[in-house]
Description:
By secondary structure, this protein is mostly helical. It has one domain. The chain has five helices and no strands. The longest helix has 36 residues.
Amino acid sequence: MTLPTEPMRAEHRDLLPHVAALRTVADSISRWGADTGGQVVGTVTFLHDHLVPHARAEEAVLYPTVERLQGAPGATATMVADHAEIVARIDALEALGRSFGPVRLSEAEANELRAQLYGLWAIVALHFVKEEEVLLPILDAHLSDADALALFERMGAVAHPSTQGA
């Protein structure tokens, strides 16, 4: 039996390898090579282009729907707080990425970069678990397949407005 929220779960599965890359890159910082900086920049670019729009769509569409179904305004405020921290860490990684070149980082720079990468990885991984184990079952219990499809289409329009109507 397919759950109404399967499209969201599939999107998480698509994002998870990129989230896992945060940990992989963090693990490689002590072996800084010519491509390590590029890996950091590539990861940050992916997060800006895919994870941040995903979060924006959740805040605009998914979370208000969960709050309405539960009759609990503000119930997803902690999830929004997660998003704020995720975006702040992505921004910090972007700033760090602009500050280093192909040479080995200082110990302080390496520690800061590693901390940001591991921290972001942990926050995003936990955030996905909270969505899948707490929020999505609420939607599965209350939405028809058609209602869920409409919800995910609205999320897509928020996340990627330039591709709508094309």
